[in-house]
Write a sequence for this structure.
């Protein structure tokens, strides 16, 4: 059995303390950022970034940095794709391994918003995962990392829509118990999917997706992932995500997302084959279709995903199946091999498909 990687910086970098610095800045500047700070009866701090308040681009940029464990950058700017100008998130990190530690969506806490069979379904990510040492396949098999200052935890909670509201004490207590901290030491950032802050930070998931596919599907060790960057156009916000065809951030990643990783290869690796697999256009059964068509209707042809997924186990089975079918890819991928000095590239941005999603999403 191969021992998990023990990075040289593991005892020096506290992802929760670095993220907490960003959180404290958000709290001090809440009015300008259009976010709202609250406290639950159990002492946990909630920062609403789009449920009852507008939030916005800058809040989304800061949430992206939090999801990188405080060791990444993010900013939004306009990018012209052919004749179409779209606000786009650029993000980067010099510590890609912390994508697995912090940014990966944390499964097994509560069901995700594809199912409504839970009082408060949500996608959860953030550096508090390092306190919980969960999931096992990251912290026991991939990387040996424990936050050296486990005094406080920061989590990002992405909900389906604004109507879902804010989490309550019971929900937060579940996370606090997992992280082995008192609720008063937990800081919860909440972003509904139908918010500007929500779509902004989710745009960074193109980098997360490529990291996942390289490390879990192609078995690239964490220590060989040296730097990562990416960009993804932001999609319109809609309250009907997962309920009817509309443009989702997953579509923007599939057809407009770019990711560039610096990887130290092994001689036996086929880097051209690897980078080709990272590009959406290489997966013919999915390419040209919306996320709603390919991931919802294809796997639940008679019912919406919201009706068919009744528990976390069934959702995980579907997630595994669609991963093998070509999920967690981007429109355009590049791998800079630091062993050979070569750059391997595949895919392209498809502005025509993005335009179709904006105006007539099937």
């Amino acid at each position: 059995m191969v021992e998990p990687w023990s990075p040289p910086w593991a005892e020096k970098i506290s992802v929760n303390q670095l993220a907490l610095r960003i959180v404290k800045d958000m709290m001090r500047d809440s009015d300008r950022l259009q976010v709202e700070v609250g406290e639950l009866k159990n002492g946990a701090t909630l920062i609403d970034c789009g449920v009852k308040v507008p939030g916005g681009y800058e809040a989304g940029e800061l949430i992206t940095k939090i999801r990188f464990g405080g060791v990444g950058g993010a900013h939004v700017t306009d990018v012209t794709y052919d004749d179409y100008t779209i606000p786009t998130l650029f993000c980067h990190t010099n510590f890609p391994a912390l994508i697995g530690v912090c940014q990966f969506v944390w499964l097994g806490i509560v069901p995700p918003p594809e199912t409504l069979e839970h009082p408060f379904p949500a996608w959860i990510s953030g550096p508090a995962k390092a306190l919980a040492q969960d999931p096992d396949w990251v912290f026991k098999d991939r990387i040996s990392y424990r936050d050296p200052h486990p005094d406080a935890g920061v989590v990002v909670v992405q909900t389906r829509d604004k109507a879902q509201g804010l989490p309550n004490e019971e929900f937060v207590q579940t996370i606090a118990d997992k992280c082995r901290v008192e609720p008063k030491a937990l800081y919860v950032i909440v972003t509904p999917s139908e918010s500007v802050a929500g779509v902004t930070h989710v745009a960074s998931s193109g980098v997360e997706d490529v990291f996942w596919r390289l490390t879990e599907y192609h078995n690239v060790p964490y220590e060989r992932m040296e730097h990562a960057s990416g960009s993804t156009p932001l999609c319109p916000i809609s309250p009907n995500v997962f309920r009817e065809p509309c443009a989702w951030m997953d579509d923007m990643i599939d057809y407009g997302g770019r990711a560039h990783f610096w990887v130290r290869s092994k001689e036996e690796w086929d880097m051209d084959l690897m980078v080709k697999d990272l590009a959406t256009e290489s997966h013919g059964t999915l390419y040209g279709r919306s996320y709603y068509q390919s991931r919802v209707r294809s796997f639940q042809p008679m019912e919406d995903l919201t009706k068919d997924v009744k528990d976390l186990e069934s959702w995980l089975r579907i997630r595994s199946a669609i991963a093998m079918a070509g999920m967690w890819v981007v429109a355009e991928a590049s791998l800079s091999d630091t062993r050979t000095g070569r750059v391997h590239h595949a895919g392209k941005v498809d502005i025509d498909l993005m335009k179709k999603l904006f105006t007539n999403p099937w």
In short: Residues 15-28 form the longest helix (14 residues).
